[in-house]
Amino acid sequence: MIAALRRAGAAALATLLVSAPALAQDPPAVGAPAPAFRLQDQNGKWHQLADYQGKWVVVYFYPKDNTPGCTTQACELRDDIFKFRQLGAVILGVSVDDVASKKAFAEEHGLPFPVLADADKKVSTSYGVLTKFMGLMELARRDTFIIDPQGKVAKHYVKVDPKGHSQMVLADLKQLGAKPAAADKT
After folding, report:
1. N or C: which end of the chain has fewer CB atoms below 10 A?
2. Of 34, 57, 70, 111, which one is the catalytic site residue?
3. 64, part of any domain
4. Tens digit of pLDDT for each residue in 13-48?
5. CATH number of the domain residue 140 falls in
6. Is 75 an annotated catalytic residue?
């Protein structure tokens, strides 16, 4: 009887450990430099954070292409793309799916911004968002980072609700000092 209880307790503990978040490191703090990265987008083009120096950058991590919440979030950002551009902000989506999955996702939903493939999970790990879902799959947690023009984390949203998040980010960009781009006078 005692041996059976020990086995049951060990199995329960193992289940808890497997289900626990697998955060290899803490997310970067507000005010800290954003971790550098180099990832491919849906078209195979490479993107580095350094490419966007001098711009506001919204890096949103999401669990999986073509799932309901991820689609809602991506489509709201898509629908607000001109508002983000007016503020001089760039949107970059990141998940651990591969480039082929990104391509299908971006094409199906007409995404006008890069969605980046973090298939080796290094970027999700460096931003502290890699987690285990159902104890089986390592995926990015739905977190968003606003990175300022100097490359520092200006805002971090943890476990984002995809519905309405785009409007929240736009409001915070304005509050953080993102200004509408000057009108082209040509």
Report:
1. C
2. 70
3. yes
4. 233 333 334 445 899 999 999 999 999 999 999 999
5. 3.40.30.10
6. no
